[in-house]
Amino acid sequence: MKTLREAPKDEEARGAQFLIRAGYVNKEMAGVYNYLPLGLKAIEKIKAVIREEMAGLGAEEIEMTALQNAKTWQASGRWDDKVMDVWFKTKLNAGGEVGLAPTHEEPITKMLTAYVNSYKDLPCSVFQFQTKFRNELRAKSGILRTREFLMKDLYSFAKNREEHEEFYHKVEASYKRIYEKLGLPQVYQCFASGGAFSKYSHEFQCLTPVGEDTIYHNADFSVVLNEEVLNDEVLSELGVKREELVSEKAAEVGNIFTLGEKYSEPLGLKFNDENGERKNVFMGSYGIGVSRVFGVIAEKMADEKGLVLPSAISPYQYYLIGIGDEGMRAAEEIYARAPEKFIFDDRDERPGVKFADAELIGIPERVVVSDKTLRDGKIEVVTRANGATKLLTKEEFLSKLS
Amino acid sequence: MKTLREAPKDEEARGAQFLIRAGYVNKEMAGVYNYLPLGLKAIEKIKAVIREEMAGLGAEEIEMTALQNAKTWQASGRWDDKVMDVWFKTKLNAGGEVGLAPTHEEPITKMLTAYVNSYKDLPCSVFQFQTKFRNELRAKSGILRTREFLMKDLYSFAKNREEHEEFYHKVEASYKRIYEKLGLPQVYQCFASGGAFSKYSHEFQCLTPVGEDTIYHNADFSVVLNEEVLNDEVLSELGVKREELVSEKAAEVGNIFTLGEKYSEPLGLKFNDENGERKNVFMGSYGIGVSRVFGVIAEKMADEKGLVLPSAISPYQYYLIGIGDEGMRAAEEIYARAPEKFIFDDRDERPGVKFADAELIGIPERVVVSDKTLRDGKIEVVTRANGATKLLTKEEFLSKLS
């Protein structure tokens, strides 16, 4: 790992500049980012939080492919570039055209026709962490809107609307817990436009000036809606007046959607009910942009010196610096106790350079062991978020580690 | 999870048929496979074995992108479809052409120009588990040669050839341990063609009739070479006579390659040595096809009834069946002790159906708790590989679990 003095000139968002300079990501080209060791560790921590919640929902993890068969998408009408304008398409040397999945409703629906046949097979749900490809005309705001990104997508399959809604409400609660556990503040569930099978979908919107969406909310956020559904009918239905609402910019960090029979009908995902009647499966889809969540955290949780990551997603808990011969020896001993918790900055650099990098990288706590602090038998621990400084004995600090 | 009676008709390889029927993978289209919960668990186990060895080598994990900038590959000459004939290329809506990475030498070399500048930054090594895309004219042998597959690729960066070779030998030893830990037998290190910076590369070839390569070896496998380097010069260099060698079909499950300055020179990956002289970094690359390893295991480790997976990669250790009321109750109790170790087949099916599925899926041990065995206070444990049957008390079995 190595920090950089400058981010690429075309990188406008502050969070993205920090992520690049701190060595979390590297820009391959516009809207396409490589993950360096620190960035990959942060992403894995986000995935672990989500995975725990998916297990709680009883969803099974799978992994579908990026390459997509045109036929599957022709059935739903979404192969057409006019209907889905973000396709990357490419040709097989063996003949024929394939696409890169921008989402997975069609292939998952088709795949489940092999495994769902009876009411006994329902309800069920599956999820994946999978790279999506979207041919965006303009890549924006660092890792917020990119052409290749990691998404968690969950799909549910139910016998009927009631069974679907029961699961849908569980996902609502689960998503709220996910943002809380990640330490991402100011995330609100928001009404957005629905489809043929439900008047609304729900988005989880996080307030940030770099967000692409505009949301409207009342004073206590008990009503939050996307600009796209701001009309008299919706306002009266939600029992709120236009003048009670204020608008803010926000970034979508999740969405949940009642698909109903939109895909099961054209792709033939049916089941025999208790009376032997053949029915369409009732579906839902639920997304979280994993790399986008990381991007939003980088935008929101930073100051002028660098990132201020929450513990839940920080690749390490401590940034460890030893100063002086004795300080360095003591730091080495501490590091050896729990190497997975530390970035140990043992470079041959001045302390000032190390302090600046610690702030740029945004690890929650900086631990300094110097000849000077050791004279009083102490170790200095500084919280990145608020600068609070504590002097602990070595024993006190080590007991925090275990 | 659900087993299927039949695999797709165009699926010829026996291992691939079993993987599909047992519910490990699902065929999206020719050469493109989705991973179902069982398959994904097996892949994660393979990754864990490899990751442990990569940590031992001191390599850092990263994740690069699939989308590739034409310019980076034009520098090495490999953007040309005549030089690299497996490219998938696609157009950006914003203008310009991008490719889907068939491998990552070029982008990793270019990326490291931002982080490597001095001899102090070397040696270093990075690896990733990343999906590769290859536009194969013919997809073959199930998941052995596919158009989209998971690969572990490791890249090393050294100051000079000596430093490179030291790492190269460590990787050789590490790869041998990986195949051993995975439980994949008959893997041999094999001489294959090299490049401008080394006469040979090394492949790890696993004997199997479905393999695409032909290797030649002597009686004790102390000399193993790929057909492509079978010539008088090589034979005399290895001190072996043509008539001492026999040929066999094999599948490549890994390769290690001295790249030298092949990519560092055109992509400008240089460093200042101790004397301030600017030099090219000396590189190596080391691949293991993760999904291919799984495919080879499925081909080799199977009998007429189904798969016979080694414990190291089996998604679960035990296939649990309860027979009769009391048997089912006891099975539920056992399952609750360590659910992560069991597939608990609690379907409303005849025991014969469950036994057949247990054999198809190839979980290492089948555990049957029936009213009959319980009359003697016993549980039946059958080893999938050899049919060996043991009767254990519940206590004896539970003590194996912890």
Q: What would you note in describing this structure?
A:
The structure is a homodimer of 402-residue chains. By secondary structure, the first copy, chain A, is of the alpha+beta class. Chain A folds into 2 domains: 14-303, 2-Layer Sandwich (BirA Bifunctional Protein, domain 2), CATH 3.30.930.10; 318-401, Rossmann fold, CATH 3.40.50.800. Helix content of chain A is 31%, strand content 32%. Chain A has 12 helices and 23 strands. In chain A, the strands form 6 sheets. In chain A, strands 3, 7, 8, 9, 10, 11, 12, 13 and 16 form a 9-stranded mixed β-sheet that branches. A 5-stranded mixed β-sheet of chain A has the order 20-19-21-22-23. A 3-stranded antiparallel β-sheet of chain A has the order 4-6-5. In chain A, β22 (378-383) and β23 form a beta hairpin. In chain A, α1 (14-21) crosses α8 (290-300) and α2 crosses α8. The radius of gyration of chain A is 24 Å and the shape is elongated. The mean pLDDT of chain A is 95. Chains A and B meet through β1, β2, α2, β3 and β4 of A and β1, β2, α2, β3 and β4 of B.
Tell me briefly what this model is.
Chain A has helices at 14-21, 37-56, 70-76, 105-112, 161-182, 232-238, 264-267, 290-300, 324-337, 351-361, 371-375, 394-401, and strands at 25-29, 32-35, 60-61, 67-69, 88-91, 97-100, 124-133, 148-158, 187-195, 198-207, 213-217, 224-226, 246-260, 270-272, 278-280, 282-289, 302-303, 306-307, 318-323, 342-344, 365-370, 378-383, 389-393.
